[in-house]
Amino acid sequence: MHRSQSLTKNFCNKILRLENHGHKIEKFSKQLHVHHPYDVFINHRGIDTRRTISGLLHNYLYRLGLNPFLDNKKMKPGDRLFDKINDAVRHCKVGVAVFSPHYCESYFCLHELALMMEARKRVIPIFCDMKPSQLQVKDNGSRMVSELQRFGWALEEARYTVGLTFDTLKGDWSEFLTNATDAVMKNLLEVNGIEEEEYIQIMKLMHMRNPKAYRTISRRCI
């Protein structure tokens, strides 16, 4: 009889703990998404990285329950290009700028970067197969002086921001994606004013509830 009562009590306590964990996770999720349709804006040159770094990073973040913006994933026929992109940049919390060999040839890449810098967004630079010193505005003669100055300023801001580097031929893809995801999550928690201890505890609980979905979290955070 006493053993039965003890088992029942333990079972009830486990249920209460799970409910408490659920409330914490729900609170964390609401903090991430309040007033922000996108958590992360991924700024990239499609021909260089859409099928590699940018696409994989988008999938990693999505599996963590975040809402990242990647143009080919979030835009549909009929969307007005500037309206959609400008709105996503303005309302994101953190930006990721994936710099690649052909990045500076793209007006849209430079425009998005300038928007993020002008809005004082937290931007994480990723230098993919290139060095920060190679970030240069390429003037083909068709750009106005004001555009060249604006884009040059945005690139300079990126050059002097601590970021990540990756060699697509020699680098460890798994390690890089884990480090990039870790950097995004840590910047998000700072933007949201979430204490690191609370963040680590919640991520542990999320991992316990769904280890398959959350196995990509950095070992330093779990």
Which structural traits does this protein have?
single chain, 222 residues, alpha/beta, five-stranded parallel sheet, 5 strands, 57% helix, disordered C terminus
Structural commentary:
By secondary structure, this protein is of the alpha/beta class. It has ten helices and five strands. It has helices spanning 2-33, 46-49, 53-63, 71-74, 81-91, 107-118, 145-159, 173-191, 196-209, 211-214, and strands at 40-43, 68-69, 94-99, 122-128, 164-166. It has a five-stranded parallel β-sheet with strand order 2-1-3-4-5, with helices on both faces. Helix 7 links the parallel strand 4 (122-128) and strand 5 (164-166). Helix 1 (2-33) packs across helix 9 and helix 6 packs across helix 7. The longest helix has 32 residues, at 2-33. It is globular and about 55 Å long. The two termini are 40 Å apart. The model is unreliable at 7-12, 18-25 and 212-222 (pLDDT under 50).
